[in-house]
Amino acid sequence: MAPKQRYRQRSLLRTSRAGEEGGGGGSPPPPSRTTSTFGIGKTIALLTGAVLVVVAGYLGFDRTGVRTSAGPASGQMLQPPAGAPVDDRPDLDRLIGVYEEKTTTSRDPLDHRTMGRLYLARADLTGDIGSFEEARQSFSDARALYPDDVEALSLEARAAFSLHDFADAAALINRWLELDPGSLDGIALKGDVLLAIGDVTAAEAVYDDVVAVAPEHPAVQARLAQLAVAKGDMTAGLSRATIAESTARETGFTGRPLAWYQSFLGQLAFDTGDYARSQSMFSTALANSPTSSHDQAGVARARAAQGDVAGAIQFLELATEGEAAAVDDLGYLADLYELAGDDQQAASTRSRIEAQLQAGTLDTTVHARLAALYFLDHDVHLDLALEMAEADLAKRSDAGAWDAYAWALYKNGRTADALAASDNVLSTGVQDAGFFYRAGVIRHVTGDDERAADLLDRALELSPRFHPLHADAAERLAAQLR
């Protein structure tokens, strides 16, 4: 059986999906959640030997770049937003074994770069954070042999971004652009980092330089969609995402690279309450990427929002096969079981999250906000959830980080601090039903029922069935306050 693809979009909307629910911005899309690997844009040097030919075929970097009349005059192929997947090829595990043995003695930076690329490909397929870390080390090893290796710099920067080490990613990008000032990929990734950490104004200024060169490229349109969402303009975000998807499709994107754009559009449709379109886009993405647990979960969420709980459960059961299932998918599945009246299955599913936590396999770093929100929503491990939310906020002060932090403060009884943090969420202008719901609850407990009712109404207007349990809770509390 082929490994399941578990890339996560780094949507600005949610701290999970589009990578993360409330997605930490950054490029449209992480490994397993917000976070995955990327196309590379440059063809690797010609390799000799049968195995090396297979490697080149496997990696085959980004043949889907689009050159329009406004495209890069240099022939450079602009990469999709950080986190977008590369296409998969056979024999990956065998190739990794070959290169792991080879790089134990090799002093050739090309060998270490190739090793890193293979690790990135595996990370994209499996969502394994350890594979991103191994990729990052391989690129660092290549640079140790040749410090000014621009290709290794660019790849290490992408790996650091995927691991949400934004400070290191920024430093690597700066050095990359010193050596190659005209790199559109470098400039675009710099904007992705700025967007991920919540510096929307600076990200927009950087993206302007890319727009000036390739305004019609789907990777540019996707970035502009995320930028619009970060500024609170969901209409513009949807429009840009629609253009990105249609342009990618019409210009020959196929497979998982195309699926990323469809999945991104599906998430924005969900977050604006268009559940039928969301289901359609996630289903289309799944047809192009049949092993994607991200897209399986996307179909499930859209089905649940339309009242098809049984169908949603079936898709989420597929999405959560395997020991390393994502915490937000497992939590959502448990909530659906509870909604369906199957308390035994709900408890069993939640025990899988506890088992991951006890075994040390639960991701509490890269996608800390996902685990934190799960714990907070179910009133377990509240101290740990606050620690994770604080650590996430220290790395990036985007709306999703402030939202998780505010919820953690509230759940830990620090209501005054929660209110201040919630004000920071709302000040970003990001339109998200989950954000509005949690902000409404916090204002209710601090005595501002008029503002609470307004926020709850905004949540339900934007996406009436944004969560199988929270949407009902929002309706009940809004009715109580009217």
Description:
Strand 1 (15-16) and strand 2 (20-21) form a beta hairpin. Helix 6 (166-179) packs antiparallel against helix 7 (184-196). The protein is globular, with a radius of gyration of 21 Å. The chain has helices spanning 50-59, 92-102, 109-126, 129-145, 150-162, 166-179, 184-196, 200-211, 218-230, 234-250, 255-271, 275-288, 293-305, 309-319, 327-339, 343-359, 368-377, 382-395, 399-411, 415-427, 433-445, 449-462, 470-481; strands at 15-16, 20-21. Helix content is 65%, strand content 1%. It has 482 residues and is mainly α. Strands 1-2 form a two-stranded antiparallel sheet.
Topology:
Elements (H helix, E strand, L loop, with lengths): L14 E2 L3 E2 L28 H10 L32 H11 L6 H18 L2 H17 L4 H13 L3 H14 L4 H13 L3 H12 L6 H13 L3 H17 L4 H17 L3 H14 L4 H13 L3 H11 L7 H13 L3 H17 L8 H10 L4 H14 L3 H13 L3 H13 L5 H13 L3 H14 L7 H12 L1
Antiparallel strand pairs: 1-2
Helix pairs in contact: 2-3, 3-4, 3-5, 4-5, 5-6, 6-7, 7-8, 8-9, 9-10, 10-11, 11-12, 11-13, 12-13, 13-14, 14-15, 15-16, 17-18, 17-19, 18-19, 19-20, 19-21, 20-21, 21-22, 21-23, 22-23
